[in-house]
């Protein structure tokens, strides 16, 4: 498995620290708009399987190019949700599977935002399901905060805040 991790901030750096203790992958390319930050995240784990690259997460073409250049099999998105769709589309165009800690953002209805539903969270990604299936690719979206962090909060509440939970 060759992973492109897009985002070298707090979440990406934590991903590196955890992944460095695992042996399921061959390479992780840590990519960020700020190359120095990507180099810091990749270098901090002291593992030769990690390298750094610069990427413009607003460009699906840039993501696809990086995927192809490094023979990436999986793209892990660890950036702000505003960049979900270019990374998602770039992973698909480059021929990689995709994992995302967020989802494509919701957009309110343009004319009646308080009466009608606009584009819901994740709708843009779910609309591309058949394209991913046809390409034989897997895209796992929304695997970050929800349900992950809410599970942590629930466990904390069970252990420290309540004597009984039904």
Structure overview:
The protein has about 170 residues and is an alpha/beta fold. Helix content is about 40%, strand content about 15%. It contains seven helices and six strands; from the N terminus they run E-H-E-H-E-H-E-H-E-H-H-E-H. Strands 3-2-1-4-5-6 form a six-stranded parallel β-sheet, sandwiched between helices. Helix 4 (about 85-95) links the parallel strand 4 and strand 5 (about 95-100). The radius of gyration is 18 Å and the shape is globular.
Secondary-structure map:
Elements: E1 2-6, H1 10-19, E2 27-32, H2 35-43, E3 50-54, H3 60-70, E4 74-77, H4 84-94, E5 97-100, H5 123-126, H6 129-134, E6 139-140, H7 145-161
Parallel strand pairs: 1-2, 1-4, 2-3, 4-5, 5-6
Lateral arrangement of strands in the main beta sheet: 3-2-1-4-5-6
Distance between the first and last residues' Cα: 41 Å
Number of helices: 7
Shape: globular
Order of H and E elements: EHEHEHEHEHHEH
Overall mean pLDDT stands at 92
Tally the beta strands.
6
Going by helix content, strand content and strand pairing, the class is alpha/beta
Helix content: 40-55%
β-strand amount:
15-25%
Radius of gyration: 18 Å
Task: Describe the sheet with the most strands.
Answer: 6 strands, parallel
Uncertain stretches: none
In short:
41% of the residues lie in helices and 16% in strands. By secondary structure, the protein is of the alpha/beta class. The mean pLDDT is 92.
């Amino acid at each position: 498995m060759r992973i492109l991790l897009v985002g070298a901030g707090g979440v990406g750096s934590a991903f590196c620290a955890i992944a460095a203790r695992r042996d399921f992958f061959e390479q992780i390319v840590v990519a960020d708009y700020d190359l120095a930050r990507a180099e810091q995240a990749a270098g901090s784990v002291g593992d030769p399987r990690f390298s750094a690259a610069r990427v413009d997460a607003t460009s699906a073409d840039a993501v696809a190019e990086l995927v192809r250049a490094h023979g990436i099999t999986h793209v892990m998105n660890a950036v702000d949700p505003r960049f979900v769709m270019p990374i998602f589309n770039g992973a698909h165009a480059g021929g990689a599977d995709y994992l995302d800690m967020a989802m494509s953002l919701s957009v309110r209805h343009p004319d009646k935002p308080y009466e009608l539903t606009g584009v819901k969270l994740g709708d843009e990604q779910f609309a591309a399901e058949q394209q991913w299936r046809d390409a034989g690719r897997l895209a796992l979206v929304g695997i970050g905060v929800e349900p992950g962090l809410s599970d942590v909060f629930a466990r904390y509440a069970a252990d420290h805040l309540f004597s009984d939970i039904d």
